[in-house]
Write a structure and sequence with these properties.
Oligomer: heterodimer
Largest sheet of chain A: 2 strands, antiparallel
Shape of chain A: elongated
Largest sheet of chain B: 5 strands, antiparallel
Strand order of the largest sheet of chain A: 1-2
CATH architecture of the largest domain in chain A: Orthogonal Bundle
Order of helices and strands of chain B: HEEEHHHHHHHHHEHHHHEHHEEEEEEEEE
Distance between the termini of chain A: 97 Å
Radius of gyration of chain A: 37 Å
Distance between the termini of chain B: 105 Å
Number of helices of chain B: 16
Helix content of chain B: 25-40%
Number of helices of chain A: 11
Strand content of chain A: under 5%
Largest interface: A-B, 25 and 19 residues
CATH topology of the largest domain in chain A: Cytochrome Bc1 Complex, Chain D, domain 2
Structural class of chain B: alpha+beta
CATH class of the largest domain in chain A: Mainly Alpha
Order of helices and strands of chain A: EEHHHHHHHHHHH
Shape of chain B: elongated
Number of strands of chain A: 2
Strand content of chain B: 15-25%
Number of domains of chain B: 3
Amino acid sequence: MSEKQIDELSGVETTGHEWDGIQELNNPMPRWWLWTFYATIVWAVAYSIAYPAWPMISTATTGLLGYSSRVDVKNELAAAEEAKSAYVEAVSAKSVGDILADPELRQFATAAGSAAFKVNCIQCHGSGAQGSPGFPNLNDDEWLWGGNIDQIYQTIAHGVRFAGDEETHVSEMPAFAEVLEPQQINEVAAYVASLEGQADTPDLVPAGAQVFADNCAACHGEDAKGNKEMGAPDLTDAIALYASGQAAIAQQVRHPKHGAMPAWGERLGDVKVKELAIFVHSLGGGE
Amino acid sequence: MLDETEVERLEVEAVNSAKTRQPLYSARKKVFPKRASGRFRQFKWLIMLITLGIYYLTPWIRWDRGPYAPDQAVLLDIANRRFYFFAIEIWPQEFFYVAGLLVMAGIGLFLVTSTVGRAWCGYTCPQTVWVDLFLVVERGIEGDRNARIKLDAAPMSAAKLAKRTLKHAIWLVIAVATGGAWIFYFADAPRLLGDFVTGQAAPVAYMTVAILTATTYVFGGLMREQVCTYMCPWPRIQAAMLDENSLTVTYNDWRGEPRSRHAKKAAAEGLSVGDCVDCNACVAVCPMGIDIRDGQQLECITCALCIDACDSVMDKIGKERGLISYATLADYQSNMAIATDPVTATIDPKRVRNSEGRLNAAIAHFRLGRIFRLRTLIYAGAWSLIGVALLIALLSRDRLEVNVLQDRNPQFVRLADGSIRNGYTVKLLNMVPEPRTIVLRMEGLPEAMMTVVGMDLPEGRSVTVEAEPDRLKTIRVYVRLPRESLAEGQSFKFIVEDKASSEADSYVANFNVPEAGK
């Protein structure tokens, strides 16, 4: 087509294409649009040279600038580590008692411990550290193995009834089904139930007191206040690890359940364990 | 007095004239606005001085707030989330004051537009003000309209290059100063200036200055009227704000038409002639490059420079000012009805003038009372209502607040003695830049006792907290209720009080207990 065809109505040049009498007008793209378009092409070429872009057989071109999002992440993580390193070193160097006495360090350790708790501990103790039957509530003021900061630290570091750690807390309540008569078990269960609340069968309580003195006081104490050295719980308070009520107590006397907790010292390192101890201590029951 | 043929006729055509209209993406037609002088030009100089003065100088005003707060009168401290405005300090949760001001600005814009048209566009819009400023520079270096057209058409020479370089250099200096002034609103101005020139300021400061320098230079120097015509939404919205009683810059064709360069000759031939001598002065001064005689159009920013230009021509030829004037559509239409010959349906200027050649009495002129209409009264009412509400809120606002977050996981903790403990995160907001001693106490639940985490105090019903100046103090509070007092649905109040000023605030907190029987 050598001759320009002009559309009569609009006065615009046509491309010469025609369908069913309708001609296509040749309106050029706006110049700013075209230049933007060319600029994006130039940009794309430059970008694919400067940055990782072209897929190869097993890898991709790395680009002249050597940019990598992985390296960025690594640097950011390193910077974050660096930023908190002074605190981490202080936590590492100080005892848990000293950390607790330093408000700034305590704040850091509580926050770090809270994060570590969410990763490692909530599976058993619950996301609010509220526990569940068999798994102690860490918010309250009843501690099986002691609630001061050193005792909490010791418990987390070495665990409870954990085979892999020599310093782990160990204790075991015998299965009294093999030791006591069923009637004696009922009596002692009635006695223990009466210590905090109501026994189902109050008339068994006096006999139960005798059974308790003979068989249980060695660990739980004559006053039934428990013994934290042995992890023997206080039976007089409002908190029960497994269940309250005479029937449940009788069951626990016959065939006691024992919880276990891993030793976290080896796994998480001393700093994390200290942070966890500070966090658990901050939950409201710390002594 | 000049004869109308002696009035210089300017060679100029409106950029959007219907005759030569092109598709939207046609190349730009350059506009070379001529210098205008007159009442409105004077007024615009004054407004430029005030607005630029406010913009450039505000960050440098000092305001003593004592040792615990910055001494800059207007400061948006984003890092610390504080907004200082003279005696007012705003915390993030009080940002609704700013939102309220923005709503007022919006309604104010409606009010102004429905009363005096696009006064915002014509006088105070930053685009208008900076273009005006850039034009001052351009005129100073390259001369007025004709000299600039000549220079623009001339081939490149040493003199042209020198002028252009100087012009753009000064524009850039203004642009940098404009971008530079912006950042001083966000940090201590004197210190930031020192840091900025020695290269120690934050990268975001340099980025901001660079971006605002670019936008000022490009919008104010290079794009000018195109920003208003193509980029700004306001020209599109304004039609909804205007009504037949809004003042707007109007060419009064009822006395101007038929326009004639040779009025005397035409009159001698028995033809009717209007006041417009078709000198094009109104087009030449227009920064938008339009012809107001084509009627109201979206490009018109109502800067009123054409009024000045036309008035000076009317003065020269001894006619009344106001051939181009601020007029309402209602007045314009009633005057048009008077001027239009019912037979020929053309404008006959003789119909608007009496035997002495003065405008006759039936011609409508603007009356101040027209400003008070239902629409403007509603706008003004809404505007004042919000203003008064904000003012009352501001004057009665608390500078000491307490926010309480109750623990929800766990909701409560059973303690060894059977009592129930609830945990609360109590946030004390000390919103004055002075340290304060604040007492937090409980009201209600007389048996309940509280302890504060990290404070080695015995259980009690009140605790004294040292609050840092202008800071939020967070404390963890445990409240314990003995077994005998447990009941569902109980609540109590946390009360905070500054003993010195007896300012106080309170929060009603629930006390969660286990369901009965559990």
